[in-house]
């Protein structure tokens, strides 16, 4: 699925107006984002795993059935082990990622502050935008965003190719600072470009950014925006986008961070919204966009999310 670079719905305090994305989108959404979650039990999860094996797998039907049955019988134990592993590392493992194959990341608005050239400023063509640490501005800008440290990793998976890691793809990520402001757009930050950057996916399809924990601003659940491109060349040329989505941050981590100095406004804003009432995550509570997270406000947080495209 590709997304053309056209003006996107604004990321505002009020709910987005309903709009028709077509029958195919509706059917895919109905099946992949709701029905699949209800349908997949232990056996269903095993079947999904078998169905998402790499295309080169030429094993017999009986072999596949045996594998699925075996996987189903140990699903509860392996699921608990996988959850424990993920909780410890906070970076989604490829095993877990393949198990989630078939559920594509929901397409979301890029909001009014993308900085990708779709509505004015374009950071993607600026020298220095390809970087892991996005805490500070680059180029002729010099400001640095203050806040609780946050490192987040996205694992990119190709749904049409057995959820193989999308090595060589690129991600542009951006988010607000601890005051809820976006660089390049806020009147006080027009000449700054912090909390924006591009990374190329490694052999495991992973990109990692070092940043700070974003604020909760009025009308929105705490989140991080990202766009996925087929290649680094496409990203830095602001080319065709494969996916546009957002990472939802878990409430426990948000509550912990927002109790620290500098995030005072976020406490009030968090009390006025929820994942269910959020105008982006509200349709399914952000179930496929909620990051796995470990850490603390004192030591910093690490987050991870599988992104199937």
From TrEMBL:
State the UniProt keywords alphabetically.
Dioxygenase, Oxidoreductase
Q: Where is this region: Disordered?
A: 1-20
Basic and acidic residues: bias regions: 8-20
Highest taxon above the source species: Bacteria
The Intradiol ring-cleavage dioxygenases domain, residue ranges: 144-219
Among the GO molecular function terms of this UniProt record, one is: dioxygenase activity
* SUPFAM superfamilies from the UniProt entry: Aromatic compound dioxygenase
Q: Which Pfam families match?
A: Dioxygenase_C
UniProt name for this protein: Intradiol ring-cleavage dioxygenase
| Species this chain originates from | Arthrobacter sedimenti
